Amino acid sequence: MGERITITTEDGAFSAYVARPDRSPAPAVVVIQEIFGVNQVMRDVTDGLAGQGFLAVCPDLFWRIEPGIDITDKSEAEWKRAFELFNAFDVDAGVKDIAATIDAVRKDPGCNGKVGVVGFCLGGLLAFLAATRTDTDAAVAYYGVGIDARVAEADKLAEPLMLHIAEEDQFVPKAAQEIILQALKNHPQIEVHTYPGRDHAFARAGGEHYDAADAQLAGGRSLAFFQKHLG
């Protein structure tokens, strides 16, 4: 279903996985990866969005470290590598690469001009920052790690943002969640949903903490949000 495109920046070029909907032109969604690279889970998310009517694009944001990372959450060695990549990753450069992806997608003949972003884990943080630093039309962040340290950036937010927070997230402790909720819950552009009993990556199909019911609930909320703001 997917294809590959190349996105060129001042720093170099990187690839992105693209899935196209049946109808064109369509609104677009940039899918922002977890710490495992553009793996099968991310490609499935991208394909799923195309099936829902969006031009979906998942850029390789680890290209500055090593292009083409594609690992899983199934082995200790892969987890070790994933955290090495996470620690080596330049968040600010990543947001610039997302901005370049948004620009490239807007110019695609298959795009109607509207572009949203959705991110998971590390990508959840990047989706939040894309909402505050880029011209994306709407953003959805799933269990973003590190948002609590950057809530002040919400002052720059001009377009709608949805946050999905797992209440038992091992990577976003209760204290961090409280900072996020207190700072953002009354922001006019931000919609926050919390999921009791859920751990990090509850929407990662096949993952240890996957919960089908809440993944479907969050996915339905995200779809309605994008249909409203990108339609």
Please describe what this structure looks like.
The chain is α/β, with parallel strands linked by helices. It has a single domain, classed as Alpha/Beta hydrolase fold, catalytic domain (Rossmann fold), CATH 3.40.50.1820. The chain is 36% helix and 24% strand. The protein has an 8-stranded mixed sheet with strand order 1-2-4-3-5-6-7-8, sandwiched between helices. β1 and β2 form a beta hairpin. α3 packs across α4. The chain starts with a strand and ends with a helix. The model has no long low-confidence stretch (mean pLDDT 97).
Care to give the gist of this entry?
The chain is of the alpha/beta class. 36% of the residues lie in helices and 24% in strands.
Record the SSE blueprint.
Blueprint: E1 2-9, E2 12-19, E3 26-32, H1 40-51, E4 55-59, H2 76-88, H3 91-106, E5 111-120, H4 122-133, E6 138-142, E7 161-166, H5 174-184, E8 190-195, H6 212-230
Parallel strand pairs: 3-4, 3-5, 5-6, 6-7, 7-8
Antiparallel strand pairs: 1-2, 2-4
Helix pairs in contact: 3-4
Sketch the major β-sheet.
8 strands, mixed
Rg from alpha-carbon coordinates: 16 Å
Low-confidence stretches: none
Walk across the major sheet and give the strand order: 1-2-4-3-5-6-7-8
Helix content: 25-40%
What is the approximate shape? Answer: globular
Could you name the key traits of this structure?
alpha/beta, Rossmann fold, 231 residues
